[in-house]
């Protein structure tokens, strides 16, 4: 709809196009496992998805593969299960997607709704990034390299989201939209690898 200065969209691969069509139609990735989070609400009226936000998380911190993240995003974390959990058990948070070390994907919130991942944040002068973003949590830490399966799955997800939401104009680290407050996905995240894999326009990395 009349956006002459947007860069042309790359043609999606057939697989990504099918996924994109499903996401555009219903907000849910057809091949992600669905775990519905109560921590969500409507996007403000008239606000389009324009930004992807990358995060990392592991629960307990630095340990992979357990149920902690799903439990946190569904308000079912047991504060007695780990000393760290007493600090975070009351948080009401979520993300749209959680990408595990093995490349498996879980979706908690429809892309058409607002997930609660960014908190106090600013991108290109606009605050409240949750309003207009899709949040992707990558299982990991700021220090440990992410896995090849995660990069591959993330690239496919981004391809599909670009095709589903042509208004997306950028991708940011949580640390870039909440500087001084957040550090994820950290120095361990290889931006050059992602940009190359997705052939992202240079302008997408402007914060
Ligand atoms: Zn984050």
Tags for this entry?
25% helix, two-stranded antiparallel ribbon, globular, 6 helices, 207 residues, Lysozyme-like, binds zinc ion, six-stranded mixed sheet, alpha/beta
Derived from helix and strand composition plus strand pairing, the structural class reads: alpha/beta
Shape: globular
What's the helix-strand series?
Answer: HEEEHHEEEEEEHEHH
How much of the polypeptide forms β-strand, as a percent range? 15-25%
Number of domains: 1
What small ligands are held by the chains? zinc ion
Query: Unreliable stretches, pLDDT < 50, 5 or more residues?
Result: none
Spatial extent as radius of gyration:
16 Å
Question: How do the strands of the widest beta sheet line up side by side?
Answer: 1-5-4-9-3-10
- The total of beta strands comes to 10
Distance between the termini: 24 Å
Helical residue percent? 25-40%
Overall description:
Helix 1 crosses helix 4 (148-164) and helix 4 (148-164) crosses helix 6. With 207 residues, this protein is of the alpha/beta class. The mean pLDDT is 94. The strands form three sheets. The chain has a six-stranded mixed beta sheet. It has a two-stranded antiparallel ribbon with strand order 2-6. Strands 7-8 form a two-stranded antiparallel sheet. The two termini are 24 Å apart. The protein is 25% helix and 17% strand. It has six helices and ten strands. The protein has a single domain, classed as 3-Layer(aba) Sandwich (Lysozyme-like). Strand 4 and strand 5 (105-107) form a beta hairpin. Bound molecules: zinc ion. The site of zinc ion (ZN) has 4 residues, from loops.
């Amino acid at each position: 709809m009349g956006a002459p200065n947007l860069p042309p969209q790359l043609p999606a691969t057939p697989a990504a196009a099918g996924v994109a069509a499903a996401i555009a139609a219903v907000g849910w990735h057809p091949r992600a496992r669905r775990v519905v989070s109560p921590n969500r609400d409507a996007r403000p009226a008239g606000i389009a998805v324009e930004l992807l936000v990358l995060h990392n998380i592991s629960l307990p911190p630095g340990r992979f593969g357990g149920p902690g993240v799903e439990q946190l995003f569904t308000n079912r974390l047991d504060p007695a299960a780990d000393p760290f959990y007493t600090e975070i058990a009351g948080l009401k948070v979520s993300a749209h997607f959680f990408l595990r070390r093995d490349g498996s994907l879980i979706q908690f919130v429809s892309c058409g709704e607002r997930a609660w991942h960014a908190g106090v944040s600013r991108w290109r002068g606009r605050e409240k990034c949750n309003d207009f973003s899709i949040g992707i949590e990558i299982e990991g830490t700021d220090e440990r390299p992410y896995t090849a399966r995660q990069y591959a799955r993330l690239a496919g997800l981004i391809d599909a989201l670009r095709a589903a939401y042509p208004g997306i104009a950028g991708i940011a680290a949580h640390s870039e939209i909440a500087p001084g407050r957040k550090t994820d996905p950290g120095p361990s995240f290889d931006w050059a690898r992602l940009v190359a894999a997705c052939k992202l326009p240079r302008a997408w990395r402007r914060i």
